[in-house]
Amino acid sequence: MEFIVFDLEWNQPEGADEEVRHAIPFEIxxxxxxxxxxxxxxxxxxxxxxxxxxxxxxxxxxxxxLNLQPGELERGRPFTEVAEEFLAWCGSxxxxxxxxxxxxxxxxxxxxxxxxxxxxxxxxxYVDVQKLYARKMGEKRQFSLESAVDEMGIEKDxxxxxxxxxxxxxxxxxxxxxxxxxxxxxxxxxxRLPGSREEEIYxxxxxxxxxxxxxxDDRNDIINDARITTIWCPRCGGPSTxxxxxxxxxxxxxxRSLKRRIKWFGHMGRTMHAAGICPxxxxxxxxxxxRTAGNGKxxxxxxxxxxxxxxxxxxxxxxxxxxxx
Length: 325
Ligand SMILES: [Zn+2]
Hints:
Blueprint: E1 2-11, H1 18-23, E2 27-36, E3 42-49, H2 60-66, H3 79-90, E4 94-98, H4 102-113, E5 124-128, H5 129-137, H6 145-151, H7 163-176, H8 179-182, E6 186-189, E7 201-205, E8 208-212, H9 219-223, H10 226-229, E9 244-246, E10 260-265, E11 271-278, E12 282-292, E13 298-306, H11 309-324
Parallel strand pairs: 1-4, 4-5, 7-9
Antiparallel strand pairs: 1-2, 2-3, 5-6, 7-8, 8-13, 10-11, 11-12, 12-13
Helix pairs in contact: 5-7, 6-7
The site of zinc ion has 6 residues, from loops.
């Protein structure tokens, strides 16, 4: 097993055909990566430019941000060649690590657009270093890579905003993170959705769990599915379905579900909420997002957490406001 920490640079279309833009909203023009062994020693580097084939005109903002030199891109090689070389370099058992989740999505979209084999046929675990860093900071927001490098006191000896440098810094942050934070690495790439109930994912931590469902053709089928709308206490309950569990803690199954004292409300296009009260552990709040996958299907991302009385009261107020509308 090796860690492949990678970063992409891409070009955005201007005035491209709607159908093309939908298939490939960002065309990759550079791949940079570092390879780390199990002990997180740097054991390899990868850096290649890609000559764009779909959006040949480089957006001026991107040209400026990347500080592209004249002729630099033109000397790049076609995506299929570079991607093939990159994936071969990754080896047979890579654990992908990125700053945020978008690079993995765009890599897979580009692979699909150029008719290359997919990275995987189903969801796979990866390391979202940005998420780990936020956990270390005790905040939920998205930090910029540069601010994290500064805060962790990592030497800035390579310029930012090029694929290789950003991959390198992401790798250095991963290495500098405390081990207990690193071990909570579970993030799932959902470009390919769980194909069946058996492949559905439950990510569990001490006082919350996140559930990713299989795909649905219609959003309404999600909010009408009792399996998804039911809430369990993260500490003592649990769905009795067989799912894929991640993390060290075993998940109690078949526990009694909570009565929804605050019924599901909110906009289907954004986040919906519901809440109950566990007699033993107090308020439990569930947040449901309906997301769209690479194949156009809908899936549920539901996070259920133990909450404070304050948070519960705030949600009660929001619910009353929403009912009054
Ligand atoms: Zn409980």
